[in-house]
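User: For documentation purposes, I need each entry recorded in a consistent format: the amino acid sequence on its own, followed directly by the corresponding structure tokens. There are two entries in this batch. Please keep commentary to a minimum and don't merge the entries.

Assistant: Recorded as requested. Entry 1:
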Amino acid sequence: MPYGPPGRPTPPPRKSGGGFLSTLIVIIIVVVVGGLVRYAVNTGFDGAIGPRPTTTYTPGSGEAPAATGDNPLVTDTDGTLVPASCDYAPWGTQVERARAFFESAAVCLEAAWKPVMERNSLPFEAPTLSVTASTAGITTPCTGSTSNFAAFYCPANKTIYMPISQLQTDYFRDNWIVYLSVFAHEYGHHIQAQSGILIKANSERRAAGVHSDRGLELSRRVELQANCFDGMFISSTSDGGSLTADQVGLATEDSYGRGDRVGDMRDHGSSENGGRWFENGLAHNLTSRCNTFTASASEVS
């Protein structure tokens, strides 16, 4: 199924809305909770380095464990998003209509993820949502005052930024499933932050060097896990009757169109692996099947 209007070629592979490095890199250093946070163009986890873990996890304590592959969220073999019928507001490129759409999606995402977090004695706080026409004049703790960013999640203020101008609406038109999938990916980064996965990945990446082979591999593991969490949500809302088979097919095809391009920093993973991890979440709807931190190097290349 083509992404855009008939006769238009399939677009080249793209970073997801959460990409943290692309060919043109802008590095901004900000101070967040006593730690350094580094971001670049198209941020999401997405290059977040900091803050350092400061707590010891005790189940039921309300604190998140600083853990990745052995995090309770991904060692839970029954961690699934229960199918639900989501009442999505009509999509539109006008700010108010787009905001209403993403707000309705956020309600459904919270209903899907909160029980899984509670089941594993993990804290949950809904993210803040910022929907704007463009990136002009937007200042965030993660990007500073630069206007060169796409949709992304900023863990420093627990906010998902969805600038309409960066969603390729001229290409995808009213195929709102694509925008929903991008949003679900960014929400996946919020789940990583809430569960403690992001804190641990940040710490290890900082220790290894953010641009080292190990540092970039950690970034890919984070991004591909968010792809898998995205697939889980699309599966759950599809099973709940809110998406058609054609829409799920389009979201799946789109997942294979994102990833590292030639010349990019190897921070997101190949488009093939991006699609595979999305389909893994889609097919199984289990957090344990999204454990990218125990996957082989070739699965996160």
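Entry 2:
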Amino acid sequence: MRPPSRFRRVGILLVAASLSFSLAGCSAHSDSSAPGTMSEESSTDSSQQASDGRQISIVHALGTTKLNAPAKTVVALDRPWADAVLLLHGTLIGHTETYTHGQGLGDYLGDLPERFGADAVIVGTPREPDFNAIADLKPDLIVGARETSGAHYERLSEIAPTVMSEGAPATWKSGYLVLGKALGVDSDASAMLARYEEEAQRIGEEINTSASNPTISVLRFQNGPTRIYAAGSFPGMVLADAGLARPKSQRGGQNFIKVTVEQIADVDADRIFITTSPLGGERSMESFRATENWPELERRAVTADDTAWITSESLPGAYAILGELAHAFHVDGPVVPEGLMRYTGEVSDAQ
């Protein structure tokens, strides 16, 4: 594997600094920094801050908050945050269940849940967290997304220091830098992102060379309108990191495009990765299978892990996507961080 690009690491940090995050202290403390930026104080290494008595201070979507020392135990109210805690080897002591995937964490996480979250308990849902259960756990830090848990920020902050991200797919990388600072592993977090981007670029280059710059579509069947995930979605961003082309209609900044049975021919790409939601996905696919255009689509289709591609919005999920891309195009898969599942399955066609 090639060494991480110094310039790419700087780019990650600059992008992350422009997004909205914070670490909350036992109560929020406002300062003159504008939301969406990292304060000068927060840019110093958190282990140094802990040793010399200065607080860790980061601006987030709902204010500015501080930690007196790196956190050790974390409650995650959002799936991407739970993945990040585990990958950065924090101790996950509580997480929420999700509407589509229940109480389980993604298989792509390998043995990380057992190693760093074996005693984690369910603490409600992102929109309806169980405050008593969270308080009983006495976490050092609570992390969540503003769009789902933001209404509870003040109450959560009374329990423990709280972080609220914007929750949009565009912010998924910067969360690792914020959490790395909170856990006292700043350099590990930035290096981990740099290694991912190097692996994405390598895999994309090998795919483009071996398959003559193929176009990629991501199609999801679910309980509701079928979706093509475009450039502004999480899988769209991973594909962009890999330098893989999208059909022209999918290159805008939108998250997804709704597709009806009559529009199935519009799902145009050299390779189509198909995911199915556990809630009604198979039933939705049946109506598409009955169309005359389905055999042609199926010829170019590969089944994909719905949790990794659609709902993870995390670095472990991104590695899983790279693994499935690599196997679909018969190139070497990514070198993944310790503990993550290495994708070793055979390429399988959509059924």
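Summary note for entry 2:
The chain has 14 helices and twelve strands.
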